[in-house]
Design a protein that fits this description.
Radius of gyration: 23 Å
Strand content: 15-25%
Length: 416
């Protein structure tokens, strides 16, 4: 069980704290409720670019990293379609330095044209390295464009194309910042060797005067349901063929989300999984096979992914048949009986509980998990219990509803 306290400042900043006297360190995590889904259609990639810009200097601190290093700290960040997250770790005695640094860039960036140009070039090079000049680099672009037709999830976080990043202006940066980066659109989590009293005093001192802001509403349309199979075949300079089968699934917190997460573990988590036993050991068609969910706030997708030994039409068809057979074997049978045993289900639930518990032993992971739980409005200590409440029958019913061939979006990514 993770013990924590929380409070909210007058400007809307939610703060959650976990005291850990076993370490001499402290982790500070700031989670903003903004991601790639908040971008304009002609300026995709802006949220990720903004993650980089947040290290380019703020109103009173021209060099964020230099000040962090002087405090003996490290920092990093990540961006998703839904959120942008910044985290810092330093000796607990320098906790106030972390508050100073994070509060100043929440208050306002320097909005320097030089910083924009530097970070723009960094992001463009990242785009080239990870998506244009790497085998399978554009797979995510292709897959999201196949699954989504109207929702902003149809573009990956990196952006739709480099030209969007190239055209970002200073005005675009200012508008995005003041409509999304605000205390009333963020959660601050602290875990480490600082007391609740120190956190309350320090957070009020450094964040209390930052004004709340009007947050841009999310007005994009809901994605229509996939009602008939979609297929896309791509040929590129890749060493092996890849087959990706995606099925739309509920967003976080909705009925069926946890079940989809557990179903992918039954299929592909470890050497006891069905993919390992039935696909990798029993035949030579596959060189790898995996299953996962793209967990997101709005409806995401459950994915079956496999690399195949050769890309002949016969092998591709057989690989597709075997993948679908494994998925269909999870679904409630026509007579209403459940094909999943309690032991198999308990194995994946125990695996989740173990992974969750081990991650919570680290103060940085704890700070990030607490921030996300607060953003979701949930008690972090209830998460494992919700997984433990899942029954084989619920899993097989979810498999029948989600892993329906009529909802399939399949991408064949094959060698030229």
């Amino acid at each position: 069980m993770i013990e924590y306290s929380k409070f909210t400042l007058a400007n809307g900043l939610r703060v959650i704290h976990n005291y850990d006297p076993s370490t001499a360190m402290v982790a500070l995590n700031v989670l903003y409720n903004v991601g790639a889904r908040d971008e304009k259609e002609h300026l995709t990639g802006l949220a990720h670019l903004f993650e980089h810009l947040m290290f380019g200097g703020s109103v009173n601190i021209p060099d964020f990293d230099a000040e962090m290093e002087r405090a003996g700290g490290i920092n990093n960040a990540w961006t998703s379609n839904d959120f942008t997250n910044f985290y810092d770790v330093a000796p607990a005695r320098n906790f106030e330095t972390l508050l100073w640094l994070e509060s100043d860039r929440m208050l306002g960036l320097s909005f320097s044209p030089k910083a924009l140009e530097v970070q723009r070039n960094v992001v463009i090079e990242e785009f080239k390295q990870t998506h244009l000049n790497r085998p399978y680099g554009d797979l995510t672009h292709r897959l999201r464009g196949l699954i989504y037709t109207t929702h902003p999830y149809r573009y990956p976080t990196i952006g739709k194309e480099i030209s969007h990043i190239e055209r970002v202006t200073d005005d675009d940066v200012r508008e995005f910042f003041y409509h999304h980066y605000a205390p009333n659109n963020a959660v601050l989590a602290v875990s480490g060797n600082v007391t609740l009293e120190e956190v309350k005093e320090g957070v009020e001192k450094w964040f209390g005067d930052i004004p709340s802001r009007a947050i841009s509403p999310r007005l994009y349309p809901a994605e229509p349901l996939v009602t008939s199979p979609r297929h896309l075949e791509v040929h590129a300079k890749v060493p092996q063929g890849v087959i990706v089968m995606a099925f739309p699934m509920p967003g976080y917190g909705k009925e069926g989300y946890i079940e989809c997460d557990l179903l992918t573990d039954i299929l592909a988590a470890g050497r006891s999984s069905r993919f390992y036993r039935n696909l990798l050991l029993d035949n030579d068609i596959f060189t790898s096979a995996d299953s996962s969910i793209i967990g997101s706030e709005d409806p995401g997708f459950l994915m079956l992914r496999a690399q195949i030994a050769d890309s002949s039409p016969a092998t591709v068809r057989r690989a597709e048949e075997l993948l679908l057979q494994q998925a269909e074997a999870l679904a409630t049978r026509p007579d209403g009986s459940c094909p999943l045993g309690q032991h198999e289900v308990q194995r994946v639930i125990n695996r989740f509980a173990s992974d969750f518990s081990f991650s919570a032993m680290n103060y940085l992971s704890r700070a990030q998990s607490l921030a996300m739980a607060e953003m979701h409005g949930e008690d972090i200590n209830s998460i494992v219990e919700r997984y433990r409440a899942v029954t084989p029958e619920r899993l097989s019913d979810t498999a029948k509803a989600i892993l329906d061939p009529s909802h399939l979006c399949e991408l064949r990514y094959l060698p030229e």
